[in-house]
Design goal:
Blueprint: E1 24-25, E2 46-50, E3 56-60, H1 61-66, E4 73-77, E5 82-93, H2 94-97, E6 107-112, E7 117-121, E8 131-136, E9 139-140, E10 150-152, E11 165-171, H3 178-181
Parallel strand pairs: 1-5, 2-11
Antiparallel strand pairs: 2-3, 4-5, 5-8, 6-7, 6-11, 8-9, 8-10
Bound molecules: the ligand Nc1nc2c(c(=O)[nH]1)N[C@H]1C(S)=C(S)[C@@H](COP(=O)(O)O)O[C@H]1N2 and molybdenum atom (MO).
C-alpha cells in the first residue's frame, strides 16, 4: 500500500486550496497601507504606461472601463502571513493595455497615487497574470482597498498589488520600489517564501 502524505505539499484547508509555506487562512479582508488613503475622483483619474524611451500610453476612467473586463477569482497572499481564498474581482487584464506598447524593457516600476511604488518583471504582468482591478465582490473597489483602481497580481505577495495605481514605468534595469528598498524581496513569490532579501 502506498503511504499518502497529506502534509507534503502544505496544508490544504476545506475548499481544496493550497496554503503557501508560513501562511494561514483568513476570511477577513485586512487593510494594509503605508500611508493615508488618497481619494482620487474618477474624473481626474488617469493610468499611464511609459516606456524606456518615454513614449506614453494613457487611459482615463471612461476609456479604461470601456475595455473588455474579466472577473478573475484568485487567492491572495500577504507577506504578513494571511491568505484569503477565492476573492472575486473585476478588471482589465494588463495584456489588453500592453497590446500596442512597443518596448524592449524587462522590468516594470508601478506607481500609485500617494507615492507608493513596487517593482516586478514585465513578464509577471502579462499572459493573464495581472489586472487593473476596479471591482471587488460585485461592488466598486473600496478606497481603502485601492479604489478607484489597483493592480492585482495575485501570484506574488500582495505588496506587489499596488493600490490606487497611477502608472507603470518600463525599465531596462530593475529598480526597487517602496518595500523592496526597505529589505523586502525583489520578486516575492509566496510559494518560495521570498519575504525578505536573501530568502
Ligand atoms: N499604494 C499602495 N499600495 C499598496 C500598499 C500601500 O501601502 N500603498 N500596501 C501593499 C501591501 S503591503 C499589501 S499587503 C496590500 C494590502 O491590500 P489590502 O489593503 O487591500 O488588503 O496592498 C499593497 N498595495
Ligand atoms: Mo503587505
Amino acid at each position: 500500500m502506498p503511504i499518502i502524505s497529506r502534509g507534503f505539499h502544505g496544508r490544504r484547508p476545506a475548499g481544496g486550496h493550497d496554503l503557501p509555506p508560513g501562511q494561514y487562512e483568513t476570511h477577513d479582508f485586512p487593510v494594509l497601507s503605508a500611508g493615508p488613503t488618497p481619494h482620487v475622483p474618477v474624473e481626474d483619474w488617469e493610468f499611464t504606461i511609459s516606456t524606456e524611451s518615454d513614449t506614453r500610453y494613457t487611459w482615463n476612467w471612461d476609456e479604461l472601463t470601456a475595455l473588455p473586463a474579466e472577473t478573475p477569482t484568485v487567492d491572495l497572499h500577504c507577506v504578513t502571513k494571511w491568505s484569503k481564498f477565492e476573492t472575486q474581482w473585476r478588471g482589465v487584464p494588463l495584456d489588453t493595455l500592453f497590446e500596442d506598447v512597443e518596448t524592449a524593457a524587462d522590468y516594470a516600476l508601478v506607481h500609485s497615487y500617494g507615492g507608493y511604488t513596487t517593482n516586478l518583471p514585465l513578464e509577471d504582468l502579462l499572459d493573464g497574470k495581472a489586472w487593473i482591478a476596479y471591482g471587488y465582490d460585485g461592488e466598486e473597489l473600496a478606497p481603502e482597498h485601492g479604489g478607484p483602481a489597483r493592480l492585482l497580481v495575485p501570484h506574488l505577495y500582495l505588496w506587489k498589488s499596488a493600490k490606487w495605481v497611477r502608472g507603470i514605468r518600463l525599465l531596462l534595469q530593475d529598480e526597487p520600489g517602496f518595500w523592496e528598498s526597505a529589505g523586502y524581496h525583489d520578486y516575492g513569490d509566496p510559494w518560495r517564501e521570498q519575504r525578505y532579501q536573501g530568502d
